[in-house]
Amino acid sequence: MSFSPRKNCGASWRHSGGSNVQSFSHRHAKRENVRFGVNKKSRNNLVIDKQIQEATPEHLRIEIDQIFKKFVSDPSETEYIFPPDYNNLQRKYIHYKAQIMNVSSRSHGKEPNRQLHLKKKPKELINQAFQVPVSDSILHHLQDFYEKHDDLQLQSIMKHRPVKRFEKIYGRLQDSLPLIPEIIRFPNKEIEKMRQQLPLFEKRQLILDAINTNQVTIISSETGSGKTTQIPQYILEEAALKKIPCKIICTQPRRIAAIAAAQRVSYERGEPVGSSIGYQIRLESKCGPNSYVFFCTVGVFLRNLMCGNSCLKKITHILVDEIHERDKLSDFLLICLKQNLELFPNVKIILMSATVDTTKFQEYFKCNQVLSLPGRLFPIQSFFLEDVLSMTQYSTPHMKSAMSKIQQRQNSVQDTQIETAKLSEQDQANWDSVLESYLNFSDNYDYKIHYEEATADLLQLLISEGIPVDQQHSEKGYSALMIACQLGDLEFIGKLCTLGASIDVADAFGKTAMDYAKLANKCDVLEILDFIKSQKGVVTETNIDDSPNLLQLYDMTTPDDFIDYNLIVALIKYIDANSDSGSVLIFLPGYDEIMQCNDYIVNSNIDESTYRVFFLHSNMNMRDQCDVFKVLPNQRKLILSTNIAETSITVEDVVVVIDVGKVKEKIYDSYNRLSTLQTQWISRSCAKQRQGRAGRVRPGFCFRLYSRQRYNYMSEERVPEILRVSLEELCLHAKIIAPRSMNVYEFLSLAPDPPSVNSVAVAIEHLQYLGALDREEDLTKLGEYLAQLALEPRLGKMLIVSCIFKCLEPILTLCAAMAHKDPFQLPPQANLKTLAMAKRQELINDVPSDHSVYLLVFQKWQDAVVRGRSKQFCSEYFVSESTMYSVLDTRRLLLGQLRAVGFVNNSRCIDDFNYNTSSWSLVKAIMLTGFFPNIAYPVQQGLALATKDEKKVSIVNTSICTTKSYNHWYFYDEMVKNRINFMIRGVSVCSPFMIALMCGINVIYPSSCSVKIDDWLEFNFASELPIKFRKTIQSLLHNSLSNPRYSFEKKNLIISNTLCKIVDIEERSAGIKVVQNVGIRPKFLYKITSNPNFKYENGAMKELDQSTKGVGFNSFFNTYFTTICFWKKIDFITMHKQGRTPKRFIPPNKQAQYREHKAAASRNLAFDNIPSATNFVQNFQQCNLNTDVAGAGQSNLYQNPNNDYFALNQNQSFAGHKKDYQSSQKHGEFKIREKQSNKH
C-alpha cells in the first residue's frame, strides 16, 4: 500500500486583503501597564463569518492565538496593544478571541493608526449584605437550647497543639531494608528469547554502566521498547550476580500502569506478584517482606517522603517513568529528588521518557548522561492537510464560492493595473512628489521620531484617493514598497503589504523590492520578504490568471475550531481504495465529536459490511468495545478515540492514523478562578505519539488534518499539568515536605516549569478559606489532617466535619464518589444520550441537588448487587460497574484513614458516628464547609446568579437545578466558561441561614445580630440567637480538631442534634425537597465476588495454593464474615478459637461453601487453632494474602495497611480485646506485639 499526493494544479496565491507581515511587526507592538478597566462595548455574535475568515490567514491566526496565550498566562501583564497593521475584519477576529478568553478588548484611534487594546478584567470582591429571616420554630429551638444548656453559650477554645513533623503517613510503602536479590536458576527459555528480542537488550550493558557511574541518568526510548519492564530487571540481575543489596522504586503516573508492570515483570521472572516484585497503589497493595522492586504510583511514594527524607537511606534506585507526560505529582517528585541529591548520594535516579527531546530534564538535573535508545516501530509515512486535500481532491461549496470571489477580485486587480497607466498628469505628479519626499525624508529629520509624518501623505493618497498601492514613479519606476525596503521601514512595509503591495513589481531598471533591500544591506527586510514569499506566494504576470491552491481555499473557508467530518469520510474512502487491510485509528477531541463522526460514517455510501466502528473514551464502557483488540479478518476496524489511545490503550493492528490535531483539556485560570474545558491544538510531541500508534506491526501511515505550517507553530511539548490546574493539593504537600526555611512558592518555584506567583497565591488563599492554612501560611491542625487523607482538601474537610457532627455515612459515600470520575458512562449511540440523562434525573427524583445522585446511585446499586442484578442495573442506568466498586473500596480506604489518624475513635462503635445520618439538610450543611466560597445567590429579580467574583452566572443546562428564574442560594463544584457565559456545575440548593452558621474562617461580628464572613458576605438577623449558635458551632469544630474525643462529650452531642433539627426546619420552611433514607448503611454484598478486584470466580491468582482455594477463602472470609463482624462488633478471633460460626449472617446457599473454605483453612492456615492475634497475622503473611482482614484497601496485613478496620500503628479494640500492633522490620523480619486491655 502506498499513498502519494497528486500534483497540485493550483498555483500560489496571495489574498490581496490580508496581512503578510503581522507575524513580525508584533515584535514592535507597544505594551503598557495601566489600571484595569471594564470594557462595556457590546460584541457581535461569536461566530466567525466568511469575510473574517478570508481576511485572517492561518499564520496570522496562529500568531494572535500565541499572543493571547502569553498575555493570559502572565499575571504581570495587564494590557497588550496590537499595532495598527490590522484591517477592520482582522480586528473583529481579535475581538472574537478576546471574548472567548475572558479578556476585555477595545479599539482606539482612527485609520490608519487605529489600535486594539486588550485588558484583563479586574477582580473585585462583590461585598453583599443580606437580611436573613429566621422562622419562629428555629428561634424557639435555639431559645430552648440555651435555657437548658446555659453553659454552652460560649465554650472555651482549647489551646491549639503545635504542628509537628509527620512521623507516620498513612498508605505509604513498607519501610524495609535493601536485600540481596536471588538469582533465577531456571528461567523460561521462551520468555528469555522474547526479552532478548526487545530493542533495549542490545544496550543492556550500556544502560547499566550509565546508571552505575552517574547519580542521575535520563533514558529516552519510544513506547514499546521495554524500558518500564526491562531496566528494573537489568538492575536486579546485576545486583544478584554481584551480591549487592538493592531496593528499587518504580513510579508510574497511573495505577493501572503500576499493576500491569508488576504483573509483567513477575511473569517474566516466573514468580507470583508480591514475592520479589510488588506493587502498591491507592486502593491495593501486593508486596512481600522479600520484595526488591516496588511499582507504585507517584502519590504513594510521595507519602513516604512526607514522613521525612530518611526513607531514602533504604532505597538504592528510583525509576521515574513517563516523565514526558508532565503530570503535577511527577513534577513535584522531581523537586523533592533534586533537593535530596547531595544528601543521599547512595540513591541512583533514573528518569525514563518516551520522547526524544529530554533537554529540559537534562538542564534541570545538570545531567550529562542521556541515553536515546532505539524503539521497534516500523517506518511511518506522514501526510499533512495540503497532501490530504491533494490526494482526495476534496472540495466544498464554500471553497468553490471563495474561488469565484477570488477570480473576480483578481480580474479587478488586472483592471486596476491597466488603469494605473491612465492616472491624470496632476495625480501622477502628486504621487511622484510624495514618493520623493518619503525617499529623502531621513536626510532632514530623525526618521524614528517623525515616522508618522514621513508616511502620512503616502497613506492619505493610498487610502483616501484610491491610488493603487503598486503605483510607480513616472520616471524611475520605484514604488512605495521599494523605498520602504531600501530605508528598512518595517512598520510601513507591513502596512503596504496589508494593502496588497506586490514584492515582484520591477522599476525602470528591472529591480524589485528584494533587490532594493539587498543593495541597502537590510537583512531584516530580506527575512520579511522571504517569509512573505514562502507563506503566501507571489502574484506575477505569468500566474495572475491561475487559481489559488486547495490549502489556501480550505484555510479561507474553514474555522480553526471546526472538525471537517466530510473530509474524514473522504479520506476513509481514499484509504479503502488504496489499501486492502489494516485498522484505522481516528483521534478526535471528545465524546460529541466521536458521535458526530460516527453519524457521518454511517450516513456515507461506504459499504457497511466492510468496516466496524469502535469507540475509545475514558467514560465509555470498555466491555462493549472489547473486540477492538481482536483482529477482524473480513472487516476494517474504524476506531474513533480521544487521546486515551496515545499511550494508555494500544491496538496492535492499527496501520493508519487520522489525526485532527485537537484535544480537550481542562484548564484552570488562576486569574479568573475558573475552569474551562477547551478544545486546543495538541503539541508536536503528542502528534508524534499519535503517529507512532500506526507502526507497531508493519509500516504505517499518518494523515494529519492540519497544515505543515500549523504543525511548525505547535508547542514542542504539552503544557505541564502544574501550569494548568489548581494547586491546593501540592501546596499542602509542600508545607510538609519543604524545608522550614522555605515557603510554599519558593519550593514550587523549583519545579522544571514553575507555576506563576498568582496560581500559588490563589491556591493558598483557598486553603486559608478552608482553614487548612493560617494567615502566616502555616499548617493548622485541620491542614495536618487533610494532608494525610487521600482526598482533595475540600472533600477531606467535609469528611472530618461529618465525624464531628455524627453524620459520617452519607458524607463518606459522597466523598468517595466525588474523588472518582463520574460513575455515569456516555452511551455508545448519540440517540441514547437523552435517555441516559433521563435515567440520571430519575434517580435524583426532583431533589434540587446534583450531588445527591452520587449517594442515590450507590444505594440503588447495592440493592441491585444483593439481588444479583448489578450488571443489569449498571446497563439500565448507564453506570460504570467498575467505578462503583472503586467507590466502595475508597469508602473503606477513607474510613481506615480516619481511624489511622485517630479521628474515628477505635474504641467506639461505628454507629456512634452516625446519629444524624437521616438528615439530608445536615449533609448539605456539612458539604458547605468544604465547598465555601463556591456560593451563588440570585440577582436581577432572580434572572441570574452572582458569585464571589462574577456578577452574572447561570447553571449548566445538564444540572437538575437548571431553571429560568432563580429563587434559592446554591453551592457548586466549579465555575466554567463557554464561549460567552460563565456557568456553574455540580450544583445544590442551600440556604443563607446554613451559610451563616457553618461557613467562613476569617469572621467579624459587626453587632450581636450580624456576621461578616471573609470580607465578602454579611448576614443580618433580627435575633442574636443565630449568631450565638454560630459561635457555639465554631468552638465545637475548633476544639474537636484539637481533640477528636471532644465531640463525644454529652453537651457537644446536644449541639450536633440541635444543628440537625434547625437546618431540617429551615429546609422544610423553604419548601426544598430532600433525599429520603439518606443514612442507609451499605448493605451486606452477597455478590461481592463479582468485584474484579477480588478475582474470586475466575481463579486468576495462580500463585496461591489451589488446594486451599485460598483466593475463594480470602474473598469469602473478607466479605461474608469480617464485614459483619465489624458492623456487629463480633470478636471474630475469639469465635474461631471457639469454633463458632455466625450462620445467621450467611445466606443459606453460601453456608456449604463457607464450611468448605473453613475446612481448607483449618488444614492449611491452621486458622481454627489460632492462639493469639499474632499467629493470626503471621498465618496471613505465610499465605501471602493480598488483602487486609476486612477486605478494605487490599493491603498486606503485616505492613501499615489501607483498610477500614485495621491500622497497625493505632490501638485497636475488638469487643473486649485491645491489640496494639506495632510492626518493626529488620531484613524482612516482622515482630508483632500484643497486649490485653480492659473491656470498654
Short description:
The chain has 1240 residues and is of the alpha/beta class.
Describe this structure in words.
44% of the residues are buried. The chain is globular. It folds into six domains: 12-122 and 395-497 and 509-558, no CATH class; 189-373, P-loop containing nucleotide triphosphate hydrolases (Rossmann fold, 3-Layer(aba) Sandwich); 563-661, P-loop containing nucleotide triphosphate hydrolases (Rossmann fold, 3-Layer(aba) Sandwich), CATH 3.40.50; 719-779; 781-913, no CATH class; 1094-1232, no CATH class. Helix 30 (781-788) crosses helix 31, helix 31 (793-804) crosses helix 37 and helix 41 (1110-1128) packs across helix 43 (1148-1164). It is an alpha/beta fold and 1240 residues long. A hairpin with a 2-residue loop joins strand 29 (1211-1214) and strand 30. The strands form eight sheets. The chain has an eight-stranded mixed β-sheet with strand order 8-7-9-6-10-11-5-12. Strands 13-20-17-14-16-15 form a six-stranded parallel β-sheet, with helices on both faces. The protein has a five-stranded mixed β-sheet with strand order 22-21-24-25-23. It is built from 44 helices and 32 strands.
